[in-house]
Amino acid sequence: MNTTGKIQENQAMDYLIALEQNASKKQDGRPSIQEVAEQMGVHRSTVYRFTERYIKAGILDSDYRLTEYGYDWLQNWKIKKLRLEKWLEHCKINKNSIAYNVNMIMENCTDDLITSLSNSVLTCRGCKFHPSSAACNWYSVNGENFKEKLGLHMPDGRYAIPFTLLKDNDQELLELSMAHRGFLHPAVLEIRDGEGTIHLTLRMMEQQSASGKWFRGEAGSVRYKMDGEWMEAPLTEGTALLPMSAFWLSYEGEDFKLIRGMTSIRFSCSSGMEAMGEREALMQIRIRRGLT
Predict the structure, then answer these.
(1) How far is 73 from 285, CA to CA, in rounded Å?
(2) 139 three-class SS
């Protein structure tokens, strides 16, 4: 899409949001085109012209109400914009120009680049972007009720997934945590009845204490952060179980082909406090559909 097309698309988005807001005030959920036109200071024909594309795309129905798909699509657009605002805020962009810069990104960049940039806020510890407890579960951080759709995209079964454990040091996420060696790779994602569970199998590892002594042991406990609280991960036959709903989740592509997730975990070593006290790390997962 050329630059002119992107600008027109974002202008059309203003009308779509106005329709959504107007519809929310109506008992039957049907927006008034006349009221939207008056609000925007244009003729009714302008509203029709800018929103026709959304009817063709299945985002609006014939009564100009958001379809189920349209609701998901619009919420996803909103969260991308919010993430970009948080990211630019962390980058110390002048607050008065953040909105302008976000609009320029949304108007001039490809959808793939917009998604990539908006996801930066999830992997940037300095951004301190923490979705609300209701928002961080099951893709609702993207405006998606993904738990209800999980079975459509990933049938019940077990999936091998790569993961990385990184030091949580408020810096760029480039340094592996020692805990990365404390688990077998890859992890296993089990989908059952619409619920997802990450299986982390513990393995023996060596660690040198501050006094220079070497200790050998495995993780004695694993905890994960969910809704701002630290939860104990059940250990079953040397495997720690983490619910998928504990992860901040994002995806690439409308078909959910690649899913990314991140959460904070804490772990301790069974060989004693001198070897390793409780440490905190960031766990990142990548789930690619079709890998079983």
Answers:
(1) 24
(2) coil
